[in-house]
């Protein structure tokens, strides 16, 4: 049976919100939990030691835990935090950029590549497999055709590296050194007043025709529609996908997890997929269409 | 420092060389490079002619194969590396780890440069590419401040090339899927951002509208100059305010930083713009040649001449330039 994972929290939540979220999540039917700050170096409601303590607690409750690294590394301070995360031998890390690959490899630490790492072909997977790759996420802009070929290619090379697919949530689409939240408030990035914390689901960026295009979230830009591949789970199972990733949201995720859990067990949910925050669904990338499209609705 | 200029066509290549480029970079006429534009880029015959022209005049030629091949494109991308090798280029600019591995094994003697699309923003990342694929040089993404560039340079195991002038990518290159989210084509997959096939212009009672796959990117009032609808440079609404929520249409210009870049040990400055006309390339290359020669001959007295400034401003988007992320306040 496919595993369910909770990706790293991409939003900026208060310390208590984070602890509450995981206190609940430990009861949910998810197998793997990714922990850590993957977006912004200024977000420090939890320190590295807090994340490690949390990781040990969740592990003790039977969850597989992976420590996620920051996606855009810009400074020596970023590298110090990265080394801190990789300076342990209890947990696999999710490498979200090549700095993390380098540090993990140097420390002989097994790693998984996150969905923002550019893994587009089997040759790339082979390079990484030689270095300690223990799993990989499909880049978000790729769909089932590429995935099928990648899984097939891995088999042909006799490499057993489990594939994970980002299957529910707002798609992380871009990273910048500019903070768009700070820009909105006309604040310098270095003195952003941590305004992201007021937007636990990001800020909606709409066209002047009110079309929801993106969600601004600090230095990251996410999709305006929510990616939802729940209906594709049976196909993913047939393809040999190992893990399906759900991206944390601060309300109602429990219901989503329950439904994904039902579908992976072959039970058809009796109600429609839940709409927690006002946001249209999309699945275009899966079908090699524009990501914002909704195919087969 | 070396001046590296774009060549979207043979006339552009020749004019860049004639106006003082130390090196030019080009791509093949397909999606194997990150600047796929209709009517631009090179077939093998034109590339051979360009390489001969440049080599006779002492300039080097780099071939950019810097998009990410998906499994069904692998043979084509691998073939592009083979073509570049047989043409006798001085370096291949690559982003994909699989292709870097292929090139390093099959053509160990042809230098490999890490493309800006390879998204290496730290010396640890550069060490990864050096250790695994023995790259000689890397182009840094346009997201680092000058201090940060200095810190990377201090520990870098390879030569560094930085962007000097041209369009400003606000997102870390190689990690931006905004374009494929709207249009299905992105720099990584197809070498296209906000591709022309998805653009539509429409005169309406509210003004001139630009659309990308039917999404309204911008609406211009009377007399307002309209830019290409690159989606991150449109005007959008956030919490009731309409503004350039991601970035204004401006160009990057780092002329003022040239002495500092030299001081940091940067090996090359790169001009963006394979989509630009030969006349544009001539003006930009000549201006930067003057500046670099000036720096070389009188490093202590380097100042940016007003003439250079006005030439470059006249070639910039909206007549505006920025130091971009090199300047921390920009953020």
From TrEMBL, chain A:
The lineage of its organism: Bacteria, Pseudomonadati, Pseudomonadota, Gammaproteobacteria, Pseudomonadales. Required for O(2)-independent ubiquinone (coenzyme Q) biosynthesis. Together with UbiU, is essential for the C6-hydroxylation reaction in the oxygen-independent ubiquinone biosynthesis pathway. One of its GO terms (biological process) is ubiquinone biosynthetic process. PANTHER family: PEPTIDASE U32 FAMILY, UBIQUINONE BIOSYNTHESIS PROTEIN UBIV. It comes from Marinobacter salinus. This is Ubiquinone biosynthesis protein UbiV. It holds the Pfam family Peptidase_U32. The keyword Iron-sulfur applies. InterPro entries: Peptidase_U32, RNA/ubiquinone_mod_enzymes, UbiV. GO terms for molecular function: 4 iron, 4 sulfur cluster binding; metal ion binding. Keywords: 4Fe-4S, Iron, Iron-sulfur, Metal-binding, Ubiquinone biosynthesis. Forms a heterodimer with UbiU.
Automatic annotation (TrEMBL), chain B:
It holds the Pfam family Peptidase_U32. Its cofactor is [4Fe-4S] cluster. Keywords: 4Fe-4S, Hydrolase, Iron, Iron-sulfur, Metal-binding, Protease, Ubiquinone biosynthesis. InterPro entries: Peptidase_U32 (IPR001539), RNA/ubiquinone_mod_enzymes (IPR051454), UbiU (IPR043692). Transmembrane segments: none annotated. It comes from the Bacteria. One of its GO terms (biological process) is proteolysis. [4Fe-4S] cluster binds at residues 169, 176, 193, 232. Pathway: Cofactor biosynthesis; ubiquinone biosynthesis. One of its GO terms (molecular function) is metal ion binding. The keyword Iron applies. Required for O(2)-independent ubiquinone (coenzyme Q) biosynthesis. Together with UbiV, is essential for the C6-hydroxylation reaction in the oxygen-independent ubiquinone biosynthesis pathway. Belongs to the peptidase U32 family. UbiU subfamily. Forms a heterodimer with UbiV. HAMAP family: UbiU. PANTHER family: PEPTIDASE U32 FAMILY, UBIQUINONE BIOSYNTHESIS PROTEIN UBIU. This is Ubiquinone biosynthesis protein UbiU. It comes from Marinobacter salinus. The gene is ubiU.
């Amino acid at each position: 049976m496919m595993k369910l994972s909770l990706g790293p929290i991409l939003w900026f939540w208060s310390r208590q919100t984070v602890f509450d979220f995981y206190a609940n999540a430990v009861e949910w039917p998810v197998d793997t939990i990714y922990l850590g700050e993957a977006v912004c170096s200024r977000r420090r409601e939890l320190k590295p030691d807090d994340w490690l303590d949390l990781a040990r607690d969740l592990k003790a409750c039977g969850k597989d835990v992976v420590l996620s690294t920051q996606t855009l590394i810009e400074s020596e301070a970023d590298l110090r935090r990265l080394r801190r995360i990789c300076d342990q031998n209890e947990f696999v890390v999710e490498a979200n950029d090549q700095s993390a690959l380098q540090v993990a490899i140097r420390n002989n630490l097994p790693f998984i590549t996150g969905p923002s790492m550019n893994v587009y072909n089997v040759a790339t997977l082979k390079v990484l497999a030689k270095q300690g790759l223990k799993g990989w996420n499909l880049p978000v802009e790729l769909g089932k055709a590429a995935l099928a070929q990648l899984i097939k290619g891995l088999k042909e090379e006799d490499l057993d590296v489990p594939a994970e697919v980002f299957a529910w949530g707002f798609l992380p689409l871009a990273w910048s050194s500019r903070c768009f939240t700070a820009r909105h408030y006309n604040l310098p990035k270095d003195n952003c007043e941590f305004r992201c914390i007021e937007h636990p689901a990001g800020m909606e960026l709409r066209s002047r025709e009110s079309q929801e295009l993106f969600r601004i979230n600090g230095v990251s830009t996410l999709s305006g529609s929510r990616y939802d591949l729940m209906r594709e789970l049976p196909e993913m199972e047939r393809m040999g996908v190992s893990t399906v990733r759900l991206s944390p949201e601060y309300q109602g995720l429990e219901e989503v997890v329950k439904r994904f859990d039902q579908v992976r067990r072959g039970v058809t949910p009796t109600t429609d997929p839940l709409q927690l925050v006002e946001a249209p669904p999309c699945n275009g990338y899966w079908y090699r269409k524009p990501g914002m499209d909704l195919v087969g609705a | 420092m070396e001046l590296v200029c774009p060549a979207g066509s043979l006339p552009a290549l020749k004019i860049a060389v004639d106006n003082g480029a130390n090196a030019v970079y080009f791509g093949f006429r397909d999606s194997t490079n990150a600047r796929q534009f209709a009517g631009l880029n090179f077939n093998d015959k034109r590339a051979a002619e360009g390489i001969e022209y440049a080599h006779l005049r002492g300039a080097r030629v780099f071939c950019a194969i810097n998009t990410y091949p998906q499994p069904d494109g692998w043979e084509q991308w691998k073939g592009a590396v083979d073509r570049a090798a047989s043409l006798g280029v001085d370096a291949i600019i690559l982003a994909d780890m699989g292709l870097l591995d292929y090139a390093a094994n099959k053509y160990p003697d042809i230098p490999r440069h890490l493309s800006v699309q390879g998204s290496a923003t730290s010396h640890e990342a550069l060490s990864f590419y050096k250790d695994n694929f023995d790259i000689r040089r890397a182009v840094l993404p346009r997201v680092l401040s000058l201090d940060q560039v200095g810190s990377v340079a201090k520990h870098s195991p390879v030569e560094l090339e930085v962007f000097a002038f041209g369009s400003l990518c606000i997102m870390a290159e190689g990690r931006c899927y905004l374009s494929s989210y709207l249009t299905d084509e992105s720099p990584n997959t197809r070498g296209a951002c906000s591709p022309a096939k998805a653009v539509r212009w429409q005169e309406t009672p509210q003004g001139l509208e630009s659309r990308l796959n039917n999404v309204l990117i911008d609406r211009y009032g009377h007399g307002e100059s309209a830019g290409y609808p690159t989606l991150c440079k449109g005007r959008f609404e956030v919490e009731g305010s309409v503004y350039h929520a991601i970035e204004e249409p401006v160009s990057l210009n780092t002329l003022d930083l040239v002495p500092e870049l030299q001081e940091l040990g940067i090996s090359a400055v790169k001009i963006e713009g394979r989509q630009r006309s030969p006349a544009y390339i001539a003006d930009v290359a000549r201006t930067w040649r003057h500046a670099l020669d000036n720096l070389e001959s009188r490093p202590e007295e380097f100042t940016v001449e007003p003439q250079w400034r006005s030439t470059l401003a006249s070639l910039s988007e909206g007549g505006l330039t920025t130091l971009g992320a090199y300047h921390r306040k920009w953020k």
